[in-house]
Amino acid sequence: MATLHPARRVDVPPVVITGPPTSRERRDALESLGRLFHAAIPPAEALRTVAASATRGLGLGLERAAAATEAGKTLADALAPSGLIESSAIGLVRAAETTGALDTVFFELAADIDQDRLVRSRLIRSLVYPMLVVVSAVLLEPLPRILLFGGRYLPAILPRLGILVGLLVLVFVGLPALLRTGPARRLLWRAPWPATIYVRRVRGRFAR
Fold first, then answer.
1. Does the predicted model carry a pTM greater than 0.90?
2. Is residue 194 reached through a cis peptide bond, with omega within 30 degrees of 0 on the bond before it?
3. Alpha helices for 39-172 (secondary structure H)
4. pLDDT tens-digit readout, 151-160
5. Cα–Cα 20 to 30 A to 77, which of 11, 58, 181, 191?
6. How far is CA 109 from CA 73, 90, 114, 138, 208, in A?
7. At what angle do helices 195-207 and 102-140 cross, to 10 degrees?
8. Would you give the distance in Å from CA 120 to the centre of its chain?
9. What is the dihedral of CA 45, 47, 52, 57, to 10 degrees?
């Protein structure tokens, strides 16, 4: 008679989905670090304190940055691969380490993210009205002809819906991809929109 052995339990590690931190997560982490640096907390301890409450991906990056600072790296070099700050801000952190103004710089980096989010919201709000006009024109244009001469609404609207979908894809997918290229940025910088929003943004950044 065969002896049945109980099935062994296999512990499967949980699947951890990591990704780049959101702007809100980065902003909260930067502001928390600014408060800790203002309280004269050492960089490694401050990084581990913020990492404990950060999301999985950002928390791992901050933990590695804390270990790197303990191994002798500067805070700027340790934070470079963490995903917390952009490459353009590494020099600011390096200068802040020299001058002893880490709290001020981290507060300013957090405020900078708030300003970026404000610019994006203004751009989206400025696009809402034109897109509503286009959608209304596409949906309502066949109605007078149908009411006067008869016909069905759906066959009349289908070709226009395809054009509308293509326009929406162009605005919300193609345009952001185009804005990442240098020539498009230089061209839009001279245009009445959205250059005026970005000019105010850049002026405010350098004024700070």
1. no
2. yes
3. 43-53, 56-70, 75-79, 90-99, 102-140, 142-149, 153-169
4. 777 777 777 7
5. 181
6. 21, 11, 9, 43, 11
7. 170
8. 10
9. -150
Residue 153: count other Cβ atoms within 10 Å of its Cβ. 11
Listed in sequence order, the residues at least 6 apart from 132 whose beta carbon sits closer than 8 Å to its beta carbon are none
Measured CA to CA, the distance from residue 200 to residue 32 in angstroms comes to 27
The tokens for 190 are 């001279």
| pLDDT per residue as tens digits for the range 38-56 | 999 999 999 999 999 888 7
**What angle (nearest 5°) sits at the alpha carbon of residue 19, between those of residues 56 and 109?**
80
Q: Rounded distance, CA 145 to CA 29, Å?
A: 58
Angle at 198 between CA 197 and CA 203, to 5 degrees: 105
Distances (CA, A) of 14 to 11, 17, 83, 182: 9, 9, 23, 42
